[in-house]
Amino acid sequence: FCREYLAALAAGVTVAPLDPTAPEAELLWSVATLGLTHVLSDGGEVVELLSGRRGGVNDGSPGGCRGRASHPSVVPLAKPADAEVAAHIAAVVSTRGSTGPPRLVPFSERQLLRSAETLMRHFNLSSTDRAYFPGALHRVDAQVAILAGLLSGGSLVAVSGFDMRTAWPEVEESGATWMNLAPAMVMGLAEAPVPSESILSRVRFVRVAGAPLRRGAHRDFWQRTGISLVETYTLTEAAGAVASNPLSLAGRRPGSVGWPVGVQVRIVDTLGCPLPIGKVGRIQVRGATVISHYLSYGLRRPPVPAVDDEGWLTTGDIGSESRQGYLFVAGREADLDAGDEAPRAGREIGAAERSGQVPCGTPASPLRAAAFRP
Q1: What pairing do the DSSP bridges indicate for beta strands 370-373 and 130-134?
Q2: What's the confidence (pLDDT) of residue 44?
Q3: What pLDDT, in 10s, does the model give residues 285-325?
Q4: For a Cys staple, 141 with which of 80, 216, 234, 259, CB 3.0–4.6 Å?
Q5: Strand, coil or helix: 164
Q6: Close Cβ partners of 159 (under 8 Å, ≥ 6 residues apart)
Q7: Interatomic CA distance for residues 304 and 294, integer angstroms
Q8: 191, pLDDT greater than 70
Q9: Which residues, in sequence order, are CB contacts of 181 under 8 Å at separation 6+?
Q10: Which helix (H) or strand (E) holds 168?
């Protein structure tokens, strides 16, 4: 996955990573709807989607629907209606639709690299670092973290699936200096055998992304492993990281997702007006890594704006900010109560919907790979 993903970016090919845990019908629908020309599967197999099948869309190019999947709702990513948006698309990610219908989120190479550089600086990554990535790589946050590890001059080890019984031996053998984990993986390792002294002396931190940590997870993991957790807040539409706790132990706040990194964050009421410090409201983000439009499903429909006139994107999450600038995520917009005070710790409301992570022990699918179109 990593090799072909990097090759596609370097070649200027649009890449659309697919969720390997999705049902077969959903994968086939994604292949058709995205207008893919090639699918790369585990083991390096390349499947070329043949041309000339019924249902293909003629987008005006020579040969009509040449190279496109045969489905009446296929959407070529570069059309006259959305040529400006699609002109520099490096990657397309499909959201799971926890706050509405699934959406196609496009990223430019500049957005991906800028987000990766932000992570690289925030975590002080260097050529001596090696990252450990288990589980799902189809999420843009994982892809940006991979780019951050490589841009620093360092290296990474990616394993398919996660098993708490083999995780520490894999970290030991690989020589990893930091780990990128989902909350479910963190809680699994909190019950696994204690890591070796060499791991404790080498692993600098564990980055947690994808969903909120349950209350007490920091304490349980620290007491079991002696390795500190850095909790973060990620969003697909922002190319990954929105906020992160600092590396320094003194600066971290359990229950908080930390300070904004690389983007602006604000809390607003239902009318979009900024709220005072400590009040719970809608979380909005703005910045260079935040997308401006979604790509549309369906035939020749224009892109859908993702931000307001001032560039703010509503995340669908609710939360508050402390006077020190720490962000607390309280849940989804459906849980919003205008009278609430700032939560003292993040809750797991909607965590399963938002994580998109591979459950512990889930075997790899033959479709964990990138799907390309020129």
Answers
A1: unpaired
A2: 64
A3: 999 999 999 987 654 678 889 999 999 999 989 999 999 99
A4: 234
A5: helix
A6: 132, 133, 134, 135, 170
A7: 5
A8: yes
A9: 134, 189, 206, 207, 208, 209
A10: helix 164-174
